[in-house]
Design goal:
This protein is of the alpha+beta class and 482 residues long. The protein is 21% helix and 25% strand. It contains ten helices and 24 strands.
């Protein structure tokens, strides 16, 4: 006999335009602690149905839904806003809300943000660390969107994000965990390990400042494949009290220079040699954010924690500092900040960076005529590296993907021992070099001037300032490589 699939029906109120007031849902549900999630038979939406009635929940969800109606399409990429509230489920009064369905290729982040050994196994099957960097950027973007709307979240951790690791995309689930500080109370305390210490020590309510802690921990967990605050010693005979102290009053950064109590074994050893990644493999800007968040005063002083926007921007700018290891094929931040150069090595396989070493340039923007200011964005350029418009046009960050973007230039290694940057665009590039190192603001007075129109190239000489055309960014060559 033909099997008849059992379905459910849901009636809604306050639906978004085009959604309708009735949904037909598949029988199979994803059941969690608070509720069950059903997918619509057309595969476009999901419905969360709470197991129990919660006083005030409908008003809380209505406030969230009304505020999030103004999200742009770009903002909605990172968050799942409520699109309607549930009125009845199979004819019975129930509480819940509708959201769009994320494509099946997305997985819960907890299944992807692995421990060091599991991550190494995934990498050796072809996955790249750069995808995790993109995922961390997407996670930070979701928190930026929340904070821009005046919201905070009571439950930021790796179970509440769906990730497409092949594309580096991430989207936040659990809109019911959103709170409005000073207006609505949190329904859950959060997940131990990601909660800010003050929640455990004095019962602080979720806020932007507690979110800053949770985001820092989650971002570092995503990049290093371990919780940077995990306690490695016991603080009390009772396990629950020990946990409360270890994540709360006694919280300690695993790489604290003066206290090794939480320092994992094999820290800094290459990952593929049973090592543990150190935060010092990250770009200097990300290292500084980590120190502000979990090493210095930020751990117990919420006001000094980096904002979500700082994490988002630093993660975005890190994309163009990745190097592809010729030995193991892994992507990693090229450690241009380490001197002498022989110290620079792949954190995954341990292979020393081989010559010719890549060049490193810092981007500048013109604040006043002839006066350029660093924007804390560096490019690591090796043979074959491309130059894109988002690198040269003011006020732009790296996009999510450049797959369909045409380069405006590229870099070639001159066998005579230097890198040259080739102009593939339609503006004239100019290189200005002094005979000695010159302050960036006055380097326009340099004594040597070279230009390159389309198809021509200019050398990446040390301390040279390169102008990419009128009203465009400039760049100073920090390290000519080679």
């Amino acid at each position: 006999m033909e099997r008849i699939e059992v379905t459910h029906t849901a009636s809604l109120h306050a639906p978004h335009p085009g959604l309708g007031d009735t949904l037909t849902l598949q029988d199979k549900a994803h059941v969690g602690g608070e509720g069950a999630v059903y997918f619509t038979t057309d595969g476009r939406h999901a419905l969360k149905v709470f197991h129990q009635q919660h006083p005030g929940l409908e008003q809380h969800l209505t406030r969230i839904m009304d505020r999030l109606r103004i999200l742009t399409d770009e903002q909605e990429r990172f968050i799942l806003p409520p699109l309607a509230l549930l009125n009845r489920f199979d004819g019975q009064p129930r509480q819940g809300f509708v959201m769009r369905r994320v494509p099946p290729r997305y997985q819960e982040a907890i299944n992807l943000i692995l421990g060091p050994e599991q991550a190494a196994a995934q990498f050796q099957r072809g996955r790249t660390w750069g995808s995790y960097l993109l995922a961390a950027r997407s996670i930070a973007n979701s928190i930026v969107v929340l904070h821009a709307m005046g919201f905070a979240h009571s439950d930021i951790h790796y179970k509440n994000f769906l990730v497409d690791i092949n594309e580096g995309d991430a989207v936040m689930m659990e809109a019911d965990g959103i709170v409005t500080p000073g207006y609505s109370k949190a329904r859950v305390a959060g997940l131990k390990g990601f909660m800010a210490p003050e929640i455990l020590t004095r019962g602080a309510e979720p806020s932007e400042k507690t979110d800053r802690h949770s985001l820092a921990v989650l971002a570092l967990h995503t990049l290093l494949f371990r919780n940077p605050l995990e306690p490695l010693i016991e603080y009390a005979d009772d396990p629950q009290e020990s946990d409360r102290l270890g994540w709360g009053a006694q919280a300690l950064f695993s790489e604290h220079p003066g206290n090794p109590s939480h320092r994992p074994a094999n820290l800094g050893r290459p990952l593929y040699k049973r090592g543990v990644l150190s935060y010092r493999m990250l770009t200097p800007e990300l290292q500084q954010l980590a120190e502000r968040a979990v090493l210095e005063t930020g751990l117990h002083d919420p006001a000094s924690r980096p904002a979500a926007k700082e994490w988002r921007d630093a993660l975005a700018k890190s994309i163009d500092q990745l190097l592809n290891c010729p030995h193991c094929g892994q992507h990693f931040p090229y450690p241009h900040w380490l001197d002498p150069p022989p110290r620079r090595a792949c954190p995954f396989c341990g292979q020393r960076c081989q010559r010719p070493l890549p060049a490193v340039i810092s981007l500048l923007e013109e604040r006043r005529t002839g006066n350029f200011t660093p924007i804390r964005r560096k490019l690591v350029l090796g043979n074959g590296s491309n130059i894109f418009a988002d690198m040269t046009e003011p006020h732009r960050f790296p996009p999510r993907s450049r797959t369909s973007t045409k380069p405006i230039g590229h870099v070639e290694w001159d066998p005579r021992g230097a890198y040259r940057i080739v102009n593939d665009g339609n503006t004239t590039w100019i290189s200005i070099t002094n005979s000695a190192s010159t302050p960036r603001a006055s380097v326009l007075q340099g004594s040597q001037r070279l230009s390159a129109t389309s198809g021509q190239s200019i050398p990446l000489n040390a301390h040279a300032l390169i102008r990419f055309g009128p009203d465009q960014r400039a760049a100073v060559v920090d390290d000519p490589g080679g």
